[in-house]
Queue: 2 jobs
Job 1
Amino acid sequence: MASVSVPGETVRGGLLRRPRSTAGFWSWVTTVDHKRIGILYGATAFFFFLVGGVEALFIRLQLAQPDGKILSPSTYNEFFTMHGLTMIFLVVMPLSAAFFNYLIPLMIGARDVAFPRLNAFSCWLFLFAGLFIYSSFALGGAPNGGWFGYAPLSTVEPGNNMLFYSTGLLMAGIASTVSAVNLAVTIINMRAPGMTMFRMPVFIWMALVVQFLLAFSLPIITVGLFESLFDRRFGTHFFDPAAGGDPVLWQHLFWLFGHPEVYILILPAMGIVSEILPVFARKPLFGYQFVVFSGIAIGFIGFGVWAHHMFATGLGPVANTAFGISTMIIAIPTGVKIFNWLGTIWRGDLRFTTPMLFALGFIAQFVVGGLSGVTHAVVPADYQQTDTYYIVAHFHYVLFAGAIFGLFGGMYYWWPKIFGRMLNERVGKVQFWIMAVGANLTFGPMHILGLEGMPRRIQTYTPALGLGVWNLVVTIGAFTIAVSVLIFIGNAVASFRRPKDAPADPWDARTLEWTVPSPPPPHNFDEIPVVHALDDFWHRKYAETEEGTLVPVPAGGSGDPRSDDAHGSGHGIHLPSPSYYPVIAALGFPLIGYGVIFHWWMAVAGAVVVLAGLYGWAFEPAAE
Amino acid sequence: MRRITRLAPGVGALAVVAAACAPNNHQDSLNPQGPYAQKIDTLFTPVFWIAAAIFFIVEGMLVLFAIRYRHRKGRPQTPPQIHGNSRLEIGWTILPALILVGVAIPTVSTIYDLARTPTGNVLNVNVVGHQWWWEVDYPDQQIVTANELHIPVGEPVYVSLCAAGVGYGGVPAPNECQPGPPKGAPPSAVGDDVIHSFWVPELAGKQDVVPGRTNHLVLQADRPGTYTGQCAEFCGLSHAYMRFKVVAQTREDFDAWVRAQQADAVAPPAGSLAATGMNDFLNGQCIACHAIRGLQVNGQPLTANGGPNLTHLMSRSCFRGCTMPITRANLEAWLRDPQAVEAGSWMQLNPKLSQDQIDALVAFLMTLR
């Protein structure tokens, strides 16, 4: 990767020498380049995707037939807990963060995020939080109380398992909060001249909504996690009814975070789909403002529906009515989005590339999750559905057949931009179809299993229930998905064997990231672009007649950006310099976590490391 | 046919196969067997059809557009540039809203309907969730049993749901849980007061059992029969084994069952193996947690302290969260090593029982009819 040339004087201002490697291991550890951090996020998240997927396969082997003997109850409980924790906190969130990091500056015409070192800190802390939680397998047992960690089970069961949950998630929460503030500031303050809010790509809008959701919902779970940690470690009684505490308090805190979290997971994928559809329909997004406003509306209403996870808790008919109705209301902006996506492909000129297939698959499958979601809002029906496989079916249609499909679409779409190489389209399409078949085989029958009486989180079931056939189908589906993921890995590996020959704009796309070479230079833009319209890049290439007919602009798109490189790799552009301190500061947190669980002196050591990192950071100039 | 189509979204083709293997498992929410489950089903069915209609409309449009507007070789890639249409936007905002109003009205009325306390000839039952079994108390009849809820058909049953709580014992007051130990009771070794969820799909929806609260649920069966249920809220190691059954009986049969349950246990004839077992029971570890009505130690009746009341054990069909039939072999296995039978079981045997003790205890337990 080309370096930004900085005149070679060595600065010894801080505790450590300024890192100078521009390639290899240390360059990645010390990087503050949002693109490299985006790749780090993506690689880490994909690694955890494989881990969480293997856990899912073990769960499905255990449940493939009644009276399964593959996993013991304790291992099963660890695996389903870790599967949920992993997929939510260590896969979908950071995979979305990978796209945010990589794309936000490129799509808004900036050179980097607002706080590049903070960005590196978020990334490393997320990785360390994930490794910290997983280290529990070697240190006496992994979290086993469900990703929802209901008290008092999570506070009274013996072992350190759920301490890893609370401390690990607190760390991941710090990483996400820091990142949320960073990215929100970036979007608000660092847009290129002319890029007004309503010229921002929908993906950027959805990213902005997600950062606010994170910033407002994470403090709530933080309070809950501290209380859980204190109950468990220091004998407080927040959730202990015998001492005047209330277990339902945890549920409120958890779901008041947990439901906005659902939108944190799905809005990025919705943003990606809203970018992919117009490109491959060669039409602007239908009803841009409506899509944006419905995303914002989802963000707001998303804070008012949490107790629909608690209809059977016994909140009483008034609360159940209120939350049933608010849950129905949130279906409306969600429906608006779906209709606008249909409007986008209506009368388009559709090219079924792999990204387009994943985007269309997202819509087709997300609809199922959306409709089953409305049936949960029918509160008495939810008295039957809640805590059954019907719910498991619902949220996997939203989060796997929805969010993960959207994110895979994004990977195929931006792969050439990020790595300068195309993924194989034919293999990609094969992967899509296998994954779609697998997803529906896995999650479709779960609707039936749930309604026919299969509760969630059971380690086994009796043959008398007659649920073996559908469970076997589900297991076959899960392995089908695994095959499709292997195909993707093969495709990705093969792409690196091919020459780095992706053009700057392989899809004839609409947004600014396609105006720069693939992969982009470290400084992103030789000259910060001036934006004149929504989909500015498209309008440089195509004009519209009065009747809305598309007319190519001769020599539009200002030619091949490579040949336009008049400034010689951005010579003279000052970028933030790499730094050791973010990774050092992040490294202290897991030590504090072990200290909380095992020995207090480790916490002291960790705090010293964090302070040393922050101290060095504070005295180090951002760029030199 | 109705059940097939009801389950169809997203897996229409697969659902056809469902008919072939739809189980008659007595735990099927689509097979309501009483008025309360029926109310839920009656509400869900039209909502399902509305959802199915929207599903086919949206997927139909998606497929239609994908075929109709696919790129064809030679056609100029210049589709009309349509940016939006405010009238359409307003339409597809308001139309779903109206549909949802139509769904919300019966939803809300059913919520209140199900929340109403039943009146008239009502059977009060307190169900207590333990890790991992269900205690069933009939406060008006002064009966305590486990894992089996006997009810008369055609009468509403008002279930009060309680978490075990530390030291929860004796027969509580109707319709109210008593968290915490009764005055003067020794602290229990069993700290199993976590959240459970009580679910008999064919008779009612589910309701959580929450420590520190009293939740209520109404259920009713139209016909005699056995309906199975299961804990639906994850409650630790043996969550999957926390099952139970509801036995719906005619009023006469139910009354007979009540009378039998109200009787005291009969001590086995002196000198028998069972009598040795009773002696072991009363002088050993068992009475720390278990009670049997009619037996006394030092002139005091036994009080259950975390373990199932065993008075008419052999009148029940199952134990260990109703996942094992009560047989000699199963009882022996349980007494030999409870943790080997049920992961995490609270029944701690210290010291372990000898084979002679196990034989005697099983002989005694099998006299508890």
Job 2
Amino acid sequence: MKLKKMIKKYFTLFFSFIILILLSNYTYSVEPEEFLKNKEQETLAREITKNIRCLVCQNQSIDDSDATLAKDLRILVRSKVKEGKSKKEIYNFLTARYGDFILLNPPLNKSTYLLWFLPIAFLLIGIYVIYKFSRLSKKL
Amino acid sequence: MKINFITIPSLIFIFIVSIFFYLLLIDRDPSEIPSVLIDKKIPEFKTNYLSKNEIFISPENFSNRITLVNFFATWCKPCRDEHKYIKELSKKMEIEIIGINYKDDAKKTIKWLNELGNPYSDVIVDKNGKIGIEWGVYGIPETFIVDSNKKIQFRHVGPINKKILKNINLKINEIKKND
């Protein structure tokens, strides 16, 4: 009986911990005064800022980053969304100044061919090696 | 057949490892992002001068001489460190240096320049960082070299040191030759 109680206690503790971790995903760097009133525009802005790299921290999106440049860029994106600019126009504006590196999802072009196709090439090499290996082991 | 089976993957492996080694050995900063503005016209913008009651308009107010554009702020320690090199560059008669005061307080900047010396031909103000974004700035200090056709030819992120000063001088000489 005692054991059962203890297990129950540990379970509650464990699950509340998990819930806390899950909740922490919902805390963003975006400050309340930055939000746009129009919900559709806010969703679009959110979608765009999630794909823009914070150039100060480099492995975070500007939506997640607390850096001042990230905040400046968030405000800039939202003002452009408010002006009625499209997603493509905003991406073009930013890549014209910071290069494709600012996009977390890099576009397919000459300088990113390797990035996009090398994994496929490695996969094919791997399949080839496994195929050869299985034939070799059959022979043995 | 057997040779093929072992050699191909090991050759690929050696190739990849040598690429990694090469990248380790060469002098580079992987966090530095190359500017996409090289060989492009300088951005258009309007702003105030730090201590003149006039409006600065780019590119109109850029002269036809080689111009150094330096983003700086009083709150930025590396800017203080590189200041002596900017002063050294200002002794060159053939170039102009425009200082862009990034997200700073005018009074503090004037005091800072009085204390350390003012190497700039003009100091203009980027109050909210919008001009910085136009130039693709992501961490000050940043320094650009603009040629006489008002095209950006060089960008350095971070403070100028002895080595960078040498590079800047070389680049200025190269631009002068091509002009």
